[in-house]
Amino acid sequence: MIFLRHINFFLCIVFLCSFNVNSQATNNDYVVVIDPGHGGKDPGNRGNGYYEKNIVLNIALNVGSDLTKNNKNLKVIYTRKDDRFIDLYKRAQIANNANADLFISIHCDAHNSNAYGAGTFVLGLHANERNFKIAQKENSVIFLEEDYEEKYDGFDPNNPESVISLVLMQEEYLDQSIIAADYIQDFLVKDLNRKDRKVKQAGFVVLRNTYMPSVLVETGFLTNKIEGKYLNSSKGQKEIAKSISNGIVKYLSTIDAKKLNYNSIINTTKGTFKGDNNYIFKIQISASSKLLPLKSYNFKGLNNLSTINSNGLIKYYYGNTKSYKEAKKLLNKAIKAGFKSSFISVFKDGGLYDLKKYLSEFE
Ligand SMILES: [Zn+2]
Predict the structure, then answer these.
(1) 3-class SS of residue 63
(2) What sign does the dihedral 330-332-333-335 (CA atoms) show?
(3) Which of 212, 27, 250 lies closest to 242, judged by CA?
(4) Do residues 180 and 215 touch, judged by C-beta distance below 8 A?
(5) Separation of CA 138 and ligand 1 centre (Å)
(6) What is the pLDDT of residue 17?
(7) Would you say residue 165 lies in a domain?
(8) Ligand 1 center from residue 219 Cα (angstroms)
(9) In this predicted model, what pLDDT tens digit does every residue of 95-138 receive, in sequence order?
(10) Structural domain includes residue 234
């Protein structure tokens, strides 16, 4: 009897464990961290007397409820759900601790002209003064934080050169961030007819320390009379939230598609092939949701370009060789040209093949 009771107890434990694992897997397929900018003693911009901190909080809460309403396997975490001040580095920490799939920071813009429209940013070097100014405005909040000199390694929001030290950190997630930004921007422009201020790069501190694809949306200008009124309205906030959440869902579906794509990689067993003549090597230099003409001036002077469309994600390749040794030389060339996150891809029978597997078989 004692023995049987033990078995029952053991079975119960096994059952509980497996139940736990399953429920966790379905609840946490995706985690999105939503970051409403500013808060508390930092009102954000006060264009036309509005409060950026309140407007972006409303938009953020709407984005979160849109996402979870329609997707049971999606978990949303907010950096703030009420009117409080949170250091920029803590916002990134929240996303890292949650091991999020995407970090999205939501803001409203301001300008002393009648400028209007929506733009989406990823971390990078600003292409012009205007983009630098937008990041400068959002970064200047660190002056309200205690010990900001130490926390941000002497970073100075007012010095354009200081920004250069920021941009390398997100390099690894840049491709994915751009895809997410593209989708969000697309929905804002096409669904809502917002003026397209495009996907751009600038040095935002809040995007610097996250270990995942990260974007910052400037939803519109509070300083513009018509747009400010729209952003401050419950209708405007709900519509903008819907576009942002649609972009996020489309992005997450792309990641999912990539997973499926990975599983469909051609399986072969070791020793089936006599040599590596069946294999073709190319260098993947970037990926995007948009098709760019394959001209060398679009790719920092590189020639011999090709693409594959992987479930809506366009992967750009440089070079084409049957020799792995040659592929390594091409990789160096691509990196020197400026595609620092390039890597070697191997194809067999027209399909992507697992490079690690190839190396274990032939190298
Ligand atoms: Zn802001």
Answers:
(1) helix
(2) positive
(3) 250
(4) yes
(5) 5
(6) 38
(7) yes
(8) 10
(9) 989 989 999 999 999 999 999 999 999 987 777 788 888 888 88
(10) yes
CA of 99 to the centre of ligand 1 (A): 24
- Separation of CA 56 and ligand 1 centre (Å): 8
Domain of residue 229 covers: 2-257
44 CA distance to ligand 1 middle (Å): 5
Task: Measure 171 CA to ligand 1 centroid, in angstroms.
Answer: 23
Q: What is the mean pLDDT of each run of 10 residues along the chain (363 residues)?
A: 45 39 49 97 97 98 93 92 95 91 96 95 80 87 84 80 60 82 94 91 84 94 97 96 94 63 28 51 84 78 81 80 89 87 81 79 74
Measured from the Cβ of residue 102, the count of other Cβ atoms closer than 10 Å reads: 24
> Which among 182, 210, 244 has a CA at the least distance from the CA of 58?
244
53 and 163 part of one domain:
yes
Q: How far is the CA of 31 from the centre of ligand 1 (A)?
A: 23
Domain count within the chain? 2
Q: Which amino acid is at 229?
A: K
Specify whether 15 is located in the same domain as 149.
yes
Domain CATH number, residue 236: 3.40.630.40
Ligand 1 centre from 142 Cα, in Å? Answer: 12
Residue 251 CA, ligand 1 centroid: distance in Å: 23
Residue 54 lies in a domain: yes
Q: How far is the CA of 130 from the centre of ligand 1 (A)?
A: 15
ipTM over 0.90: yes
pLDDT, tens digit, for every residue of 118-129?
A: 999 998 777 778
Q: Which of 317, 324, 309 is nearest to 279 (CA)?
A: 324
The three-class DSSP label of residue 214 is strand
Residue 285 belongs to domain with CATH number: 3.30.70.1070
266 Cα to the center of ligand 1, angstroms: 47
CA of 64 to the centre of ligand 1 (A): 19
Q: For residue 39, how far is its CA from the centre of ligand 1 (angstroms)?
A: 10
